[in-house]
Amino acid sequence: MKDTFPIYDICAISEFKRDDILISRFAPYLKSHKNLALPHKHTFYHVVLFTEGGGTHEVDFTTFAVKPFQIYFMVPGQVHSWSFEGEVDGYIINFSVPFFQSFLLRPDYLEEFPFFNGTTDHSVIDIPHPLQSQITQLFEAIIHESEINEKAGLDMVKALMLQIFILVSRLSTGSKSQNATSYNYTLLKSFQKLVEKSFSELKLPKDYAEILYITPNHLNAICKDMLGVPAGEVIRNRVILEAKRLLINRDQSVTSIAYGLNFADNSYFTKFFKKHTGLTPEDFRKQTLTHTHHDSTTYR
């Protein structure tokens, strides 16, 4: 395990640096990037469809059993690692944040898809059998377009990717947000964006409610109705997630992490972290790094 926690830019692992995208079948990608089995972050979007293989894939400290026709959508900043068993194959697409921003003149288009909201529970999806062939054909078409270098090839790749995103998003029929009023849904998305931007400075629902020009009770009602948890828990969960992401970097002390997250002192941070995870920051770091080292020795 390296002392410095790796954060990869698209240019560091892409053969298509100029176009901010990497497109590959998964087996050769895995062979070329074995170091990516260890925990790391990306500054880009990461889409993986497994078509064969087993083992585990961990995203933001949640472990998933790898199985065929399981698709992963990861956003910049998420921590992930994998420990595979046997031969693994599928498809992978890495693309930078600006890649879609000018397309269709909709810079926020990706935010409409629930699997790109950074919530782990929404980002791992099993593709049902009736859809598997169609999704596979779309990935194959993307591979083909990346190889033939035809006119408007990148636009065709984007169009094919959007077909995949739309088809997969239609599987999320259980989302409460689909039945919500557009006003409340817009408020929820605004709240989530604010939390992502300000979770280390603003820790109370009333702070966000004030910015959104609504009451704390209204904000809580929206979160409970659409997410199943109160607004305060949304904020706390984001703080805990960031603390976990920082703790697996051994170069950062627990004290520096506490101050970076705007806790008054290390003691308060430790109490907060233990209350919501059951472990002290030091115990979480020790447990995670031990688990990571074991996984890296079983990688093949």
UniProtKB/TrEMBL annotation:
Under the heading SUPFAM superfamilies, the entry gives: Homeodomain-like, Regulatory protein AraC
Report the leader peptide range: none
Q: Which domain of life is it from?
A: Bacteria
Q: Which InterPro entries match?
A: AraC-bd, Homeodomain-like_sf, HTH-like, HTH_AraC, RmlC-like_jellyroll, Tscrpt_reg_AraC-type_HTH
GO MF terms listed in the record are: DNA-binding transcription factor activity; sequence-specific DNA binding
Keyword Transcription (UniProt):
yes
Gene3D superfamilies for the chain: Homeodomain-like (1.10.10.60), Jelly Rolls (2.60.120.10)
Q: Does the keyword section mention Plastid? A: no
Limits of the HTH araC/xylS-type domain? 189-287
Q: Give any Pfam family that matches.
A: AraC_binding
This protein's UniProt keywords = DNA-binding, Transcription, Transcription regulation
- What protein does this entry describe? Transcriptional regulator, AraC family
Origin organism is Mucilaginibacter paludis DSM 18603
